[in-house]
Amino acid sequence: MGACAEMSGELSRICDITAHDLARIHVSYCNDDAKRTKGMHRQRTQKVWGHTAHCGWARLLLNRARVLIIHGLAHRGANDAAMPTDEDDQDGHFFFNHPEREGYFAA
């Protein structure tokens, strides 16, 4: 899932398979239309996965903000340590948005 909770084609296919199995079980107990039941289960599954993705993204942003407050540039300046420069600030923003590249540029 992406940053805006967009899903890949593979995840959409998994959702379709899940909805198909849930609809098959539902239709075996109830005398409902299989196609309509599958659509209902697909919509429910996408809704739950979308909410989970948004909650995960919000949790990631809150954790990153917490790390920046505790260990970030503002914390260093408050302790009379070296004040951050513009260059430090640019690196901080880059690695905040791209955490997977943090060790990539290290010499």
Describe this structure in words.
It is a single chain. The chain contains four helices and no strands. With 107 residues, the chain is an all-alpha fold. Helix 1 (9-29) crosses helix 2 (34-71). The longest helix is centred in the middle third of the chain and has 38 residues, at 34-71. The protein is elongated and about 60 Å long.
Globally, the shape reads: elongated
Q: Give the N-to-C terminal Cα separation.
A: 32 Å
Overall pLDDT level: 76
* Tally of individual helices: 4
Number of domains: 2
Secondary-structure element string: HHHH
Summary of the model, kept short:
The protein is mostly helical. It contains four helices and no strands.
Features:
mainly alpha, 107 residues
Compile the SSE list and pairings.
Layout (H helix, E strand, L loop, with lengths): L8 H21 L4 H38 L1 H6 L7 H12 L10
